Each structure stands twice: as structure tokens, then as C-alpha cells.
Amino acid sequence: MKKYSIILIALFAVLSTLQAQVDRSKAPKPGPAPVIRIGAYTRFELPNGLKVFVVENHRIPRVSYSISLIMNPPLEGEDAGVSSLTGQLLGTGTKTRTKDQIDEGIDFIGATLSGSAESIYASSLKKHTEKLLDILS
């Protein structure tokens, strides 16, 4: 027991001297910027004008879809926030599915689905691709 007490006191003394050497009045220098490596991608355009970018990563069994609307922001004037509200309402139901049906379908396959005024995002395991696309559509 005495041996452990001595070790504990010695450890406390070493740690307290290390902490005293840090000058907290100066911000630390930034480290090197991380290197971001995006894999090779394929780009093509569908007959309806939709531009598609495909980035493959076969190390994980996951598929993600992101649809971004490239448009000039509408002048909302006194109706500011309507486009944002409309984007948030994308997950609240459709003509063929209620919000509960959409939520249950997404939860059942463990997926993610979100929408905004400018985009729609969906992600799930690769084995649930068909179900995810069905819900997304």
C-alpha cells in the first residue's frame, strides 16, 4: 500500500510540473492543414439535364445520394423564409406516403433522409439502395 502511495504522489508531482510549463496566455500554433483526398469521380449528364457525379468508395457498404438545386435564390421580400420552410416540409408527407410512413421506412432500414430549400440528402447501407430510392422518390 505504501508503495502505491509513493507512486501516486510521484505521478501527481510530475503531472503538476508539466501543467505548469504550458503558457495559457498565448494561443497554440496551428498544426498542418489536413490533406483531403477525394477519390476519382465519374461525371455525366442525364437526358433531362441532371448533372450526376459519382464518387465510389468500396471500403464501406454505404450509399449516399445528394441532390443539390443550383438556382438563383428567389426574392422573397416580406415572405422571407418561405423557401426554407418549404425545404423543411419535404419530409412531412407526399401524395403517396404520410410522414409516419416515410419515417417508419427510413427507421426500418436505418437510413438518413433530410431536405432543405436547396438540397435533398439520403444515405443507407448499400443493401437497402432500392428501398431508399423508393422512399426518396
Q: What can you tell me about this protein's structure?
A:
The chain has 137 residues and is of the alpha+beta class. Helix content is 33%, strand content 20%. It is built from four helices and five strands. The chain has helices spanning 2-20, 82-88, 99-109, 129-136, and strands at 41-45, 51-55, 62-68, 112-115, 119-125. Strands 3-5-4 form a three-stranded antiparallel sheet, covered by helices on one side. It has a two-stranded antiparallel sheet with strand order 1-2. Strand 4 and strand 5 form a beta hairpin. It is elongated and about 75 Å long. It starts with a helix and ends with a helix. The relative contact order is 0.12.
Please summarize what this structure is.
By secondary structure, the chain is of the alpha+beta class. It is 33% helix and 20% strand.
List the SSEs and their pairings.
Blueprint: H1 2-20, E1 41-45, E2 51-55, E3 62-68, H2 82-88, H3 99-109, E4 112-115, E5 119-125, H4 129-136
Antiparallel strand pairs: 1-2, 3-5, 4-5
